[in-house]
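PROTEIN–LIGAND DATA SHEET

This sheet pairs a single protein chain with one bound small molecule, manganese (II) ion, given as SMILES. Inputs appear in the order they were entered. The predicted three-dimensional arrangement of chain and ligand is reported afterwards as a token string under its own label.
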Amino acid sequence: MTTLTRNETAEFLLSHDRYCILTHRRPDGDTIGSAAALCLCLRKLGKTAHILQNPEVTDRFSWLHQGLTKEKAEENDTVVTVDVASPSMLPKAFEHLLGRIPLRIDHHGSAVSFTDYELVDPAAGACAEIIYDLITAMGCEMDSRMADAVYVGTSTDTGCFRFANTTAHTFQTAAACAAAGARVYGLNQVLFETNTLGRLRMQGWIVDHLRVFDSGRLAIVAIPRAVEEQIGVTSDDMDNISSFPRTVAGVCMAATLRETKEGDVKLSVRAIPGYDATAITAQFGGGGHKGAAGATIHLPLEEAAKAVETAMLALN
Ligand SMILES: [Mn+2]
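PREDICTION REPORTED AS:
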């Protein structure tokens, strides 16, 4: 594996063609926005480019990929991943492509390399910020659709510019998006100022069932599948719900556990600076960022919650 700079990555992208762009499992605004912006830029530069259809993309973000996707990667495609930190983050349907992926563009600090080349910058708040740099390095001018895509990635991964990963470069990226015609107000309204009733009911349940411990510094909530079904939440309702328990005053690190359809447990940890979410998720084979990390645990919900609580207490 060879590490590339932004300029070297731009050269790579300019000297290849027939792009097939991959997003990660449980796709969020960053992987979806990054893929859309990169695809639109490559097309504007005269390349053939598609995003491989990710079956888990929901209504919340699917509009970003309209007209950009295809269902199958072809033999001579140049495959590029965006915002994918490890092979385990690839959707099952993409796993057969492992071993023939030349390039990975990412911003995760804890990662497992799986491509020939990679551009990884853990200092970037969002992968979309790196995509913006590449667009500029390739001499492509952002249009309003590209700008929307970069803005969605950048704003969602930084919690609308509130998280600790927000830097001067994050604002520079957002400013460039605004200048290029991104619908900043409209997107903020939909992404950060709107709650479905399902989401609010789930937040109510979380408030009632949150266990706060270690003098109020740590919190954990375990959500049974049956509760999600009873409330009737969609996956969009649950998008980034794990940020919510951390917003309780005094809580420095919060873990949210959700029972999956398959009977596994999906763990998401959120932490403020000084606490490392990956220190918890790494113990369960997961990864992520210091402020936000995840893992899948193959235990019944209550046992998983006990194990996570023990891991959190052991950090002190
Ligand atoms: Mn990201």
